[in-house]
Write a structure and sequence with these properties.
It is built from 11 helices and 14 strands. The protein has about 300 residues and is of the alpha/beta class. It folds into 2 domains: about 220 residues, P-loop containing nucleotide triphosphate hydrolases (Rossmann fold, 3-Layer(aba) Sandwich), CATH 3.40.50.300; about 60 residues, Alpha-Beta Plaits, CATH 3.30.70. Strands 6-7-8-3-9-10 form a 6-stranded mixed β-sheet, sandwiched between helices. α4 crosses α5. The longest helix is centred in the middle third of the chain and has 16 residues. The protein starts with a strand and ends in a 7-residue tail after the last helix. It binds adenosine-5'-triphosphate. The site of adenosine-5'-triphosphate has 11 residues, from α1.
């Protein structure tokens, strides 16, 4: 079965003669959280606006659950839920009244769906309070509830953790993961908070100056860059042994940095011990996406 919820193929956008998006490709699978990362002005919003049908591509194709948004716009949009700018909410109504109002404007929404989406986003205890009394995190969750009313398979969130406090960020992250893992939704998240993407996403596309530089699993991306930090009693002897094993080394603050290889680490450790070197500590260093981004873009900063 085809489980692709979003396919972006050769997408281009030219505005006032300037090529803003330069032919990008990626796809999303059912049940995954997909991060869209790039510095300011790299083309994230323009791409999202094309996916949700707010602006037309100059070239290329966008399919949502197999429906081409140019040819089958309504069917494609039936499978999409999104919050692109701030969610449109009426502050003087309760959360429940807002959802009732929106569900009334949509076709074929069952009465029970409002309660379902309220439960999904964890707003049950406050749903009958006025929206103006909500925290930003609660407003965001109500916005997601609204986006979920039509049972979409693909959810697009532009900077969903922007402006939230640490507990709001954690709740949003957990909600997004829950929607993907438990409800099987594909969630597309753009964010400049790379640490968030690292904790939340399965795969990530890195965009710079209108070009997607890489699409990769977050775990794979990180593991390629992982290093091992060794604290030993005889640094020089340990370096000699690593060199003999053809492993590159670097000395940092009285420790040795080597590459990381899950299958080989035990062997390396044994070799050191056999040759009389005491290994006092061995730490795996996982880089942050910020560092990765700088490497991938050749030094262009994310902000
Ligand atoms: N309507 C427009 N007219 C002219 N230039 C535009 C227009 N929309 C976007 N751009 C330009 O296209 C580039 C990409 O903008 P876009 O907003 O997509 O980037 P972004 O990655 O979302 O950045 P940010 O996080 O700052 O919103 C920028 O250089 C921007 O100035």
């Amino acid at each position: 079965m085809n489980n692709t919820t979003l396919a972006v193929k050769g997408l281009r956008k030219v505005i006032n003669g300037k090529e803003i998006i330069k032919g990008i490709d990626f796809d999303l699978r059912q049940g995954e959280v997909f991060g869209f990362l790039g510095p300011n002005g790299s083309g994230k919003t323009t791409t999202i606006r094309m996916i949700v049908g707010l602006i037309k591509p100059s070239a290329g194709k966008i399919e949502i659950c197999g429906y081409d948004i140019q040819k089958d716009f309504t069917k494609a949009m039936d499978n999409l839920g999104c919050i692109v700018e701030n969610p449109e909410l009426y502050p003087y109504l309760t959360g429940w009244e807002n959802l009732k109002l929106f569900s009334g404007m949509m076709k074929g929404i069952k009465k029970t769906r409002v309660q379902e989406v309220v439960d999904l986003v964890g707003l049950t205890s406050r749903i009958h309070d006025k929206v103006r009394t909500y925290s930003l995190g609660m407003k965001q969750r109500l916005g997601i509830a609204q986006a979920l009313l039509g049972k979409p398979k693909l959810l697009i969130l532009d900077e969903p953790t922007n402006g939230l406090d640490p507990s709001g960020i954690r709740e949003m992250r957990e909600l997004i993961k829950f929607l993907a893992v438990e409800e099987g939704l594909s969630v597309f998240v753009s964010s400049h908070l790379l640490s968030e993407i690292q904790l939340m996403c399965d795969r990530v596309a890195i965009i710079s100056r209108g070009t997607v530089l890489q699409v990769n699993e977050v775990r794979a991306l990180l593991s390629e860059q992982q290093q091992l930090q060794w604290r030993v009693d005889q640094i020089e002897e340990a370096i000699r042994i690593f060199t003999e094993l053809e492993i590159g080394t670097e000395i940092v603050n009285d420790t040795i940095l080597t590459s990381y290889n899950e299958e080989e680490v035990g062997k390396w450790n044994k070799k050191l011990v056999e040759q009389g070197v005491t290994v006092k500590e061995m730490t795996r260093k996982v880089p942050h996406l910020e560092e990765l981004f700088l490497q991938v873009t050749g030094g262009e900063s994310i902000d």
